[in-house]
Write a structure and sequence with these properties.
Low-confidence stretches: 31-42, 202-215, 276-296, 574-578
Shape: globular
């Protein structure tokens, strides 16, 4: 009987213990759930930064783990849905985990190098325009890695400078690290714009009131070699440091007093102590530098025309690299590596000290059957250490992607029907002209050593321009068509071929079209341009009067996107956009 009571007591005791644990678990769950409704300081800061970024016209990715932006995000920020790019950080994360696993305290790790990171493109759809833009953006970022284009030729310099200034103001250090960067390819400007992605800080308010150390952020330091991006940064630091600006920002996004005081201190420090940077000649290509422990090898697979496909291995560092092994595997031979030892002499030495190029490369032909299916691997010797790397199929960065140096002499040589008006525009010479190639005017023009803003284009009364099927007008200054009654300016096709229209981008002066006859158009398209309309004004003001538009393909005539447009006394005005 006593034994039975003991067992019963033990049972009830165990049951009571389980019940108590269940109650504690339930209370903990309730507290955890309740805590989600309490204000999180980091969440509040995150929300305020996002609101500030949106007010400064940035696309914003609220969740940094999200792959891309929603359609609603594009529309609400007055952007056409477009391709989003980021650097692939899988190699970086794998190296970081290996360091933790092996107990190695090394920052940055061996893969902390944006130059050798692969590029990931996330298109909004599978349209022909998206396919073009995936290629365009990939080439731009690879051109950045190989120093064949200046950063301001790749990025919207004004947006990039403002992006870094905003990150500095809020001390959003992690948001400016290359592993967290996202870029949007603007389909009108064909330049990359930074997407603001906020990474919450470890502390509620950062206590170290110093500027971001550019020496520890190789990507930002690299961009600051470009005078245009640095000038934009300084412009916005000055703007953000103004008392009136902080006061208005505090009112607009409801900053609490402590956060407002913090931003005032930050803005004062940033205005007093500008970023460090290395001086450079404006048109000089930037020499490659990176962390010394990084294996600075970049590879890709290419095939052009009737040539055999090949591996191209590129050394983007200032140090010699020796390729000591190449191999490949296929889906049918996943666990087997096949080597090229039979006809390759190792080591393959990539020594920049023996070349006057910005980088040095070598090509190895591969069989046709391996072009699309195989994955390629290699081992490189750098400073006595062996590093492994992989190759993927990437778009090449072609020399013709490099913008020309736009002096007045070069422009008038390329377009002999143009002449300088002595003020701020190029004028079409009086008469009739056949335009046989795209007329593309630059973002700035060099005259007698001076750099002037984007020139306008003037076409005066009685002038007739006939365009071939591959030609169009693309410019960054105002379009001024000064026709007169019975002496209209005529823009038409050459021998009945439809031409590809007009694109005006980011003009800081208003365009005016008066007494013009513009006809035989099709939507503007080129190698990477693929716009829905034939005459597009992007972020530009325009006034159109007393003009005729006829014979336009697909009925998409005008696209006033982010533009102010006034028009009256027109024939056939068909408008898309905003």
């Amino acid at each position: 009987m006593s034994a039975g009571n003991n067992k019963l007591n033990l049972f009830y005791s165990g049951l009571s213990t389980c019940a108590a644990l269940a109650c504690l678990l339930f209370i903990a769950l309730i507290l955890w759930k309740f805590s989600n409704f309490l204000p999180n300081p980091n969440s509040v800061i995150s929300y305020k930064i996002v609101e500030h970024a949106k007010s400064e016209d940035f696309l914003v990715l609220k969740n940094h783990n999200a792959k891309s932006l929603s359609l609603e995000s594009f529309v609400s920020n007055e952007r056409k849905p477009g391709v989003v790019f980021r650097y692939d950080i899988n190699d970086y994360m794998s190296a970081a985990k290996k360091q933790v696993r092996d107990g190695i305290d090394s920052t940055p790790n061996a893969m902390d190098n944006w130059r050798i990171a692969h590029i990931i493109a996330i298109p909004p759809n599978r349209s022909s325009a998206s396919i073009k833009h995936v290629e365009m953006g990939s080439r731009l970022l690879r051109a950045l890695s190989f120093n064949v284009m200046l950063p301001s030729d790749i990025f919207d310099a004004d947006m990039m400078g403002k992006f870094i200034a905003l990150g500095d103001l809020w001390q959003a250090t992690d948001s400016l690290h290359w592993t967290n960067l996202r870029f949007y390819l603007n389909p009108y400007t064909l330049k990359l714009e930074p997407i603001f992605t906020y990474i919450p800080p470890y502390k509620v308010l950062p206590t170290k009131l110093s500027i971001l150390d550019t020496d520890k952020n190789s990507f930002i330091n690299f961009l600051f070699h470009d005078p245009k991006i640095l000038a934009a940064y300084n412009k916005y630091i000055k703007k953000f440091s103004g008392k009136d600006y902080i006061a208005k920002l505090s009112s607009d996004i409801a900053l609490d007093p402590a956060l407002k005081d913090h931003l005032v201190i930050r803005s004062n420090i940033l205005s007093m102590y500008p970023r460090r940077f290395v001086e450079m000649i404006p048109d000089e290509r930037i020499p490659p530098t990176d962390h010394p422990e990084s294996p600075l090898i970049y590879g890709h697979i290419q095939q052009k025309n009737d040539m055999l496909p090949y591996l191209e291995m590129i050394n983007t560092s200032l140090k010699p690299i020796e390729i000591i092994r190449l191999s490949y595997s296929t889906d049918s031979l996943k666990d087997v590596s096949h080597f090229f030892d039979n006809y390759i002499s190792y080591p393959i030495v990539l020594d920049p000290n023996q070349s006057d190029k910005a980088y040095i490369s070598v090509r190895v032909n591969i069989p046709w059957e391996l072009y699309k299916e195989a994955r390629f691997f290699g081992e490189a010797l750098v400073d006595g250490q062996i590093h492994k790397f992989t190759f993927r199929n990437y778009f090449d960065c072609l020399p013709d992607e490099i913008p020309k140096q736009n002096t007045l002499a070069e422009i008038t040589t390329d377009y002999p029907y143009l002449e300088w008006d002595g003020i701020d525009s190029l004028s079409v010479k009086q008469g009739n002209h056949v335009i046989r190639e795209p007329l593309e005017l630059p973002e700035e023009i060099k005259i007698n050593g001076n750099i002037l803003p984007a020139p306008g284009l003037k076409i005066n009364a009685g002038t007739e321009l006939s365009f071939t099927s591959n030609s169009y007008i693309k410019m960054h200054g105002p379009l001024i068509i000064n026709g007169e009654e019975r002496k209209e300016v005529v823009l038409e096709s050459y021998k009945g071929q439809r031409w590809k229209g007009i694109l005006v981008i980011n003009s800081d002066r208003p365009s005016k079209i008066n007494h013009a006859i513009i006809q035989d158009l099709s939507p503007t398209s080129a190698k990477y341009l693929d716009l829905p309309s034939a005459i597009t004004f992007y972020n530009s003001e325009v006034e159109i009067t007393n003009s005729e538009f006829d014979k336009t393909e697909k009925n998409n005539l005008f696209d006033f996107f982010r533009s102010k447009a006034e028009y009256n006394n027109l024939e056939k005005l068909l408008v898309t956009g905003h």
